[in-house]
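Work Package 4 report. The design task specified in the project plan requires that, given a folded chain encoded as structure tokens, an amino acid be chosen for each position. We show below one input record used in the internal validation round.
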């Protein structure tokens, strides 16, 4: 199973970025896809997740600013990040939860928000 993430970068506060993650090679259907964030000295935390049936969960800190979506046919998940804040800086990882077998992490993409 491979996860290919893209879309990170350097952006000024208040601007936007869009992350995408494409999964390939999963032997079973992917029931849930999500984005996690890790900053120095902190544990990796959930940013947003979405199930195959479009049940969505967001971290309180991103509600109203971030939107997660997925394309089931392409096993792709997107994270639209608007009104970015300095505290959104971190490495963003996508994660998938196949119906059977282990979960998988992507390689991470850096998001840096500057003032």
């Amino acid at each position: 199973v491979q996860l290919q993430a893209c879309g990170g970068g350097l952006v000024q506060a208040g601007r936007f970025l869009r992350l995408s993650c494409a999964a390939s090679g999963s032997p079973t259907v992917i029931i849930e896809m999500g984005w996690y964030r890790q900053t120095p000295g902190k544990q990796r935390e959930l940013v947003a997740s979405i199930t195959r049936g479009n049940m969505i969960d967001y971290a309180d800190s991103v509600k109203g600013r971030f939107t997660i979506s997925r394309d089931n046919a392409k096993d792709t998940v997107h994270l639209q990040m608007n009104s970015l804040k300095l505290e959104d800086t971190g490495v963003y990882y996508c994660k998938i939860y196949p119906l059977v077998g282990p979960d998988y992490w992507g390689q991470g993409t850096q998001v840096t928000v500057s003032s």
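The first strand starts at residue 2 and ends at 6. Validation will be extended to a larger panel in the next phase.
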